[in-house]
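Progress narrative, work stream C.
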Amino acid sequence: MASGVTSTIRAVSALGTPPFQTLDPFLFCVYHKDQYPPGNTRMEAPRVGNGADFDPSAPYRMYHGDRIPGFPQHPHRGFETITATMEGVIDHTDSMGNGGRYGDGDLQWMTAGGGVVHGEMFPLVNQTSDNPTRFFQIWLNLPAKNKMCEPSFKMHWAQQVNKVTRDDGSSLTLFAGEYKGLNGEAPPPNSWAADPSNEVSIYHITLPPNSKIKIPSTATEGVNRTLYMIEGTEGVIDGVSFKSKVYAVIDPSKALTLSNPPTSSSSTEFLVLSGVSISEPVAQRGPFVMNTQSEIMQAFRDYQSTQFGGWPWPEDAMVFEKEKGRFAFFDGVESTPDDVEGKRREGISKAGEL
């Protein structure tokens, strides 16, 4: 696909299977899309997991779950997980005693910092209809000075996640960062994204046929910008048409126009990741990301000796009761989407504007 390279598109390739390629300050990106069937009374799937079920040809995956899909307790250190949802629900539990159920447009931002154990399970809460799940999980690196910070997480409920909608039906969901004066919710305090000058942005863009949207340029040095075409039969990037899913490295100093032609048979969706590079050495092994190999070995020793505080939940693959609804329990305080004041602030552009 070298012919797709333009003054704006620095490099382009087939998207491939996740995890997708990323650039500093991002470490990891996965687009989860599963068509889970109706669950039973225990929110279980009819298929039993095998401990490593990542078959991309299957209608859904059990991942590391057994009866309920998901990722039972596992450790992290030295980075952040950003889980941006579109459909379905996720049950979160961690070694700090925090937990919650979120989804359907919510975003959870967790700083692993010096070490946390957490679980992410996908209970099949609907018994009479399918349980489709769509979400991104993105790993954002932490600079050396914050790698051993106190773990934390923030829940951004769907009505707090801002969205720009244009008259042609195109939309941009602002999971993080800024877009034309509209700001995302604040990340945790030790995040690389907490400093606006680092310009960390996460955009989810949906383009119905005959629509377009523009991503402004930036003059800030050191910004990396990548783009992922995750859905659709055709997408136009910087005037170049692609009829298969692609990954592209974008020149952030140039404005970028994304469109879906009127002849397209379906909506096209993109994920855009941008941010100033941290520009520090990266040493990674499994769930730990530090700056040196000796720090990685220390992370393993620390986890073996402390379990990062231990696991306070009765099950490794912990889920909450079906009737619980969406909630977050953090630092002894429980909240729900109903506790959020106001509604989503949407930016509606005028006809003809990008």
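Work stream C, second folded protein:
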Amino acid sequence: MSINSSAIVLFSHGSRDPLWRAPIAAVAARISERHPDRHVRCAYLELCEPTLVQATDDLVQQGAAHVTVVPMFLGTGKHAREDLPVLIEELRTRYKDVQFTVQGAIGEDDRMTELMAKIACESPG
């Protein structure tokens, strides 16, 4: 990773069940496959690792100068509204030379709403 590179962190709630993490890992794998120049990590709020700090530490050590955090939540609940801003502020204090961008909750994107509605209306296979 070059010194001026950008990175993505897919941030989710977390679970002790490793099968729960599979869809988030699949999104990360798809990003890596389709955009090999973009470094991506998964991070979790609780119950499993890596945490947001751990994932960001790894990316910054590899040279990330800009980190985009993507909340992998269906809506802007307590975790996205309250917990995430505190964590981002901690990262900004820790890494003063790194730019952090936080996207909105993935489930609130109109494209995701459209896709979920389409899937819901499909006949079962």
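The first helix runs from residue 22 to 34. No further action is required on this item.
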